[in-house]
């Protein structure tokens, strides 16, 4: 289950959904404005002025009649993100998913949403820079994946003290990765398929990070500080970068089950520690590794595709080693 969905279910479980109590009048006006700004799509035809908006589709109310969640997906519209979303002052979550006709930038009205904990804006045509005013919210999860955002990752995101899930993958972001983007426990960082450059900040080798995916960028230098037997990571994907370091003595987290280091400039040998790492997926192909591939314990589950196009690897499913 995607983490944003997990967080959404968590939010729902901590609130009482009420359809018997009429919704707040200001919230009803704001929702009707949202509908109008979207061009009155048929999916929102039940949003009518003389009805209780707590019974409307695509929204949830608290037990005091305030709108705390709005979720819209696959709408056939051509417009910008409704400014009136910023008038729903009790919002905890906004989910706008797979609406390719949504374009423009994130509206400044979102800066008024000081209680917002989850912003899920995915698979749209929204563009421009990621705005600094998102730091005025209370985000613990921010998913802006598969859009058209450009420019650097703003340093202002580091000011969100509860942010533990960040997905900016599938955009055109450039520049370096700021340190200190994540806080708290059970952290997730997805920055794949951008145009990011420079070194990976050392602080991402510390703390309770479950997943780090920095694949398909232009990152350089050493990333071995991300590895370590006591680290809690379950997934590391650094493929399709320009990373250069010696892998020989690397030791990997006990719970790691996904490791992709392919398409880099990694040297040395396949580390023997991988024999004790229960990986579900391993890819070390297209690097500069050399020597015999360890072949005991968990290594027997990985085929030749995990090692092809290296400098001089041998053994396992590749050509036999010569003495």
Share in β-strands: 25-35%
Tertiary shape: elongated
Q: What proportion of the residues is helical, as a percent range? A: under 10%
Backbone structural class: mainly beta
The overall strand count is: 19
Structure description:
With 323 residues, the chain is mainly beta. It has 2 helices and 19 strands. It has a 17-stranded mixed β-sheet that branches. A two-stranded parallel sheet has the order 18-19. The longest helix is centred in the N-terminal third of the chain and has 13 residues, at 25-37. The chain starts with a helix and ends in a 9-residue tail after the last strand.
Concise summary:
The chain has two helices and 19 strands.
Helices and strands in order:
Elements: H1 3-13, H2 25-37, E1 59-61, E2 67-73, E3 79-80, E4 93-104, E5 118-128, E6 141-143, E7 148-152, E8 165-167, E9 172-175, E10 187-190, E11 195-198, E12 209-213, E13 218-221, E14 235-237, E15 242-243, E16 258-260, E17 281-283, E18 290-292, E19 312-314
What descriptive keywords fit this protein?
mainly beta
């Amino acid at each position: 289950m995607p983490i944003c969905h997990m967080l959404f279910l968590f939010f729902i479980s901590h609130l009482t959904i009420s359809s018997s109590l009429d919704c707040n009048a200001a919230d009803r006006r704001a929702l009707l404005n949202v509908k109008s700004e979207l061009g009155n799509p048929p999916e929102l035809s039940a949003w009518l002025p003389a009805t209780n908006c707590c019974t409307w589709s695509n929204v949830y109310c608290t037990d005091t009649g305030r709108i705390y969640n709005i979720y819209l997906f696959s709408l056939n519209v051509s417009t910008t993100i409704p400014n009136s979303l910023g008038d729903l002052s009790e919002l905890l979550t906004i989910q706008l998913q797979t609406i390719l006709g949504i374009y423009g930038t994130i509206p400044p009205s979102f800066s008024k949403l000081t209680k917002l904990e989850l912003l899920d804006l995915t698979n749209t045509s929204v563009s421009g820079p990621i705005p600094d005013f998102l730091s005025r919210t209370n985000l613990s999860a921010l998913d802006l994946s598969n859009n058209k955002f450009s420019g650097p990752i703003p340093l202002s995101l580091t000011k969100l003290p509860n942010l533990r899930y960040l997905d900016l993958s599938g955009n055109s972001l450039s520049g370096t990765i700021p340190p200190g983007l994540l806080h708290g426990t059970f952290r997730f960082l997805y920055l794949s398929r951008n145009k990011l450059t420079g070194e990976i900040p050392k602080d991402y080798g510390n703390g309770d990070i479950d997943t780090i995916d920095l694949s398909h960028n232009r990152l350089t230098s050493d990333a071995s500080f991300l590895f370590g037997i006591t680290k809690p990571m379950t997934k590391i994907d650094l493929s399709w970068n320009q990373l250069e370091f010696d892998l020989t003595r690397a030791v990997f987290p006990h719970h790691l089950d996904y490791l992709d280091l392919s398409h880099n400039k990694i040297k040395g040998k396949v580390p023997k520690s991988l024999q004790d790492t229960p990986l579900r997926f391993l890819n070390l192909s297209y690097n500069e590794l050399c020597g015999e591939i360890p072949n005991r314990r968990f290594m027997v589950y990985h085929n030749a595709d995990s090692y092809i196009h290296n400098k001089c690897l041998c053994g396992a499913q590749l050509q036999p080693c010569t003495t």
